[in-house]
Amino acid sequence: MPLLDWVNKAQATTAASEVPYHLLDFRSAHGAPSAENLLIQGDNLVALKALVPLYRRSIRCVYIDPPYNTQSAFEHYDDKLEHSQWLSMMYPRLTVLRDLLNENGSIWVSIDDGEAHYLKVLMDDVFGRTGFVTSIVWQQRTTRENRKAFSANHEYLLVYAKDRRRFEASRNALDLDDEVRGRYKNPDNDPRGPWQSVSANAQAGHGTPSQFYSLVAPNGKRHQLPNGRCWLYTEPRMREEIARGNIWFGRDGNGVPRVKKFLSAATQSLTPETLWLATDVGTNDFAKKHLVELFADAPLFETPKPESLIARVLHIATSPGDLVLDSFLGSGTTAAVAHKMSRRWIGIEVGDHAVTHCIPRMEKVIGGEQGGISAAVGWKGGGGFRFYTLGEPVFDAAGTIHPAVTFAGLAAFVWHFETGLASFDDAQDERGRGAQDEPGGNAQDERRGSAQDVRGDSAQAQREGNNASARRGGASPYLGTHDGVAYYLLYNGILGDKRPNGGNVLTAAVLDHLDSLGRHVGPRVIYGEATRLGPARLKDLGITFKQIPYDLKVR
């Protein structure tokens, strides 16, 4: 497979792995206090990496609208990177987004001609050529630009899937629209309702001798086949169809025969096409008018996406309750649409407009804002979200665990570090019980409320951290079992206090407590500050002890 090369590609391919895992600092809650939706302000590569231990293989759809590298400086962001810098910016972000997608998941990337073809090859490298689903042409403007050699009226959406077969089996078709329904009429007042007609003859290449004959209409006109054509049915079958009223000969009964296809029997959905017209999904100007309504006094984005465009993406790629991620959130359109369509969402934005645009926009959505797609989906308001900023790395400069890390935050990190899974519940999925195991499954096991476990910035977070095991069904340092190995974490006084006999150190008493939870038959991995059990006894017990922080590293 041809590969794309550029200056500093080697560094770009390892950049994601070199980014340390960070905490997320909780700042404010908006709307319903139990809401699972997250708005994160900060560098999106660092923020994406912070989400991996909690949301790996959990995202159903990623939509991103990255800078197009147009060599322009806009009000809200700089779109003037050198070409190789743009590729180096995109590559590590795409690799982390790939890891966050579930097996039915897809990623949709808006782009224009400037970088579209380079991005296609770049995404082939990250997702594999088999991951490519399609490229969609979107008519993003309807006016003509006469100052240039060509009036650029379109952009692209590149669509890739984590597993193309599973995505195609689970993707949603489009509903019949008014234009399609309008093709169905009922000029003969057929009691079966509206219908449209198709030709009663076909290419003769696969016809049998019984499909070649003269057809006499009810009013006596004889119809001969055009050259190279045959009738759809044999003559006896054609007579049956005529008797059933399924063949239309025009209002006078002598017209060219056509087969009636009834709306009541039609498939009530449409396969999405790859040309999306402005009349169907809106334009940049349409989106600007909506933003003017939302932010009368705030500077506008140059090329915002209309809610109707994102709504079509999410309709095809997701179902209600699925988790949607946009790591170039901009003015918050993806979050607004996902919220209105009853999808859960995570939005990441580095700029100040995370506060000046995204928060107030989502507050208006919660309040029942009626712009964009609201009327189409019957949006009345409700829900909520939590706002976070990037906190400290899990490990400080000296390589020790940052003091703000709670038990639950470290537990999620350890579990992901050891198993590659997003959270404790994923152990069930690995044993074949997850919805992801079946084509078309929605994999609705995303980590509800898990962001609370990594905040680490307040007394509330500390209480949640120390009580995390209680939320998993009982006060216990047990994390879960994966591939026959049980994992435990002794950290932050989870068993009562921070003294050795309180739970941070593996002692005989602590081991007895672990055994009292239900003796695991098989190997065990126990993380702790230290152990008072010798190597021989640990070996006899099938225990691998790992010392915090020395046996943990950021990868």
Percentage of residues in DSSP E strands: 15-25%
- Fraction in helix: 25-40%
What is the count of distinct domains? 3
* Number of helical stretches of at least 4 residues: 19
**Assigned CATH class of the largest domain:** Alpha Beta
Query: In the CATH hierarchy, what is the superfamily of the largest domain?
Result: Vaccinia Virus protein VP39
**CA-CA gap between termini:** 28 Å
Mean pLDDT: 84
Shape: elongated
Number of strands: 27
The CATH architecture of the largest domain would be: 3-Layer(aba) Sandwich
* Radius of gyration, taken over Cα atoms and rounded to an integer in Å: 30 Å
CATH topology of the largest domain: Rossmann fold
Indicate the low-confidence ranges by residue numbers: 73-79, 426-475
Kindly name the structural category: alpha/beta
Question: Mind explaining what this structure looks like?
Answer:
31% of the residues lie in helices and 22% in strands. With 555 residues, it is α/β, with parallel strands linked by helices. It has 3 domains: 9-173 and 271-392, Rossmann fold (3-Layer(aba) Sandwich); 178-265, no CATH class; 394-547, no CATH class. The strands form 8 sheets. Strands 1-21-2-20-19-3-6-8-7-18 form a 10-stranded mixed β-sheet, with helices on both faces. A 4-stranded mixed β-sheet has the order 22-23-25-27. β19, α11 and β20 form a beta-alpha-beta unit. The radius of gyration is 30 Å and the shape is elongated. The two termini are 28 Å apart. Residues 73-79 and 426-475 have low confidence and may be disordered.
